[in-house]
Design goal:
8 strands, about 200 residues, about 30% strand, elongated, about 25% helix, Rossmann fold, alpha/beta
Length: about 200
């Protein structure tokens, strides 16, 4: 009985468990890609990002001059990996392209690289109003063998979140990212990839 009282006393002095992080996915589904005879194969390199975006934090800008992280909310992977995977997924929806990761070992005819300038929610109307999500990429396409530059394209996509909730910011980020990647793919369709 004394042991039982002692154990119950020990349990009561332990700190309450901290709440778990909420982990968000950028992509909703992954499609299997099958080889297509006339499709151009693209190696999708890991994007280059500012240091603040090289981790899994959801980034908020309260004043346009500073960054903060979204408390206990984070992305499922570091931001460069999220963007890389979502680009491969977006390419899968277009018959003329196949996107593969460098780790796949697949020989490709072309490579595409993104430089990320922005990937954050900006509280441009104050911290009590829905933020504007800004996604800004610079895409570079090159011949995979010669590494000769084929072209570059800059795109900036914005989406206003419905409210200040992190889930709303994540949804707006998902939409802005998809729009930016879709614009990049539209530009890629205009390139002379036969040279």
């Amino acid at each position: 009985m004394v042991v039982g009282i002692g154990l119950s006393a020990c349990v009561s002095v332990l700190p309450d468990p901290k709440p778990a992080d909420t982990i968000y996915l950028l992509r909703s589904s992954v499609e299997a890609v099958t080889p297509r005879k006339d499709a151009k194969n693209f190696r999708v390199d890991r994007p280059t990002t500012p240091t603040s975006l090289q981790r899994d934090a959801i980034i908020l800008s309260p004043d346009g001059n500073t960054y903060q992280t979204a408390g206990r909310a984070r992305w499922s992977e570091p931001v460069p990996a999220l963007i890389q995977w979502s680009f491969v997924d977006e390419l899968a929806g277009h018959d003329e392209f196949i996107g593969v990761l460098p780790t796949s070992g697949v020989r490709t005819t072309h490579r595409v690289h993104l430089t990320v300038r922005n990937f954050e929610a900006q509280f441009d109307h104050g911290q009590t109003e829905a933020p504007l999500v800004v996604v800004h990429y610079i895409a570079t396409v090159a011949d995979a063998s010669s590494r000769n530059l084929i072209g570059t394209f800059a795109v900036k996509s914005t989406r206003r979140a419905d409210n200040i909730a992190i889930s709303s910011i994540v949804n707006a980020t998902r939409e802005a990212n998809q729009s930016a990647l879709s614009d990049i793919i539209g530009w890629m369709k205009t390139l002379d990839l036969e040279s």
